[in-house]
């Protein structure tokens, strides 16, 4: 993989400031209409971007970074191992990748299958529990990953008994046309909280560069922003 290590730091920091400000405004608005709103945090999605950019953002105060491609991510995690960064795995999970994901990440946003949950739980043994979110295919699109909303309860029932997994909530990537997908995600999140006794159920990962404010208005607790911070990617 070819990565650019030379970048415009002033531009990166200006983008980061603008996204942080926009998120603060969205959070303030959400609190006005819902006093139970808990501020959404910013996850900087650094896929395809070099470790040097991550380090610059870390120095500016960003601690949470999201990566999609395991090999690429491991290189950056090793390169930056002296910084206490919180790493989030947000890519699709193949069975043969679970060991490294369990070993090197703090969060996984893309749990959608029981076999993967079982492997992550086994391979996380001896470490602090791995924070996991269940990815839901909220728009029922064949092309998107995530389990179906009606499959969520069975997956929860399995994961809630795993001592090395800390079940935190849901993650969605709605389609651009998705009508009220954010509201449906929040409703599902609340229904699961009512149905199960889940002591750490507190997170909804939704919203990206293009729809961050709308996601926050509907109860997102973590927005995943790549392009608006790092600029366009030359490949996905
Ligand atoms: C790439 C990616 C993002 C960031 O998308 P932007 O539109 O660049 O902000 C968020 N979530 C997931 C799962 C991604 O793969």
TrEMBL record:
Gene3D superfamilies: Alanine racemase. InterPro entries: Ala_racemase_N, PLP-binding_barrel, PyrdxlP_homeostasis. The modification N6-(pyridoxal phosphate)lysine is found at residue 47. Keywords: Pyridoxal phosphate. Residues 29-233 form the Alanine racemase N-terminal domain. Pfam families: Ala_racemase_N. Pyridoxal 5'-phosphate (PLP)-binding protein, which is involved in PLP homeostasis. HAMAP family: PLP_homeostasis. Belongs to the pyridoxal phosphate-binding protein YggS/PROSC family. This is Pyridoxal phosphate homeostasis protein. It comes from Moraxella canis.
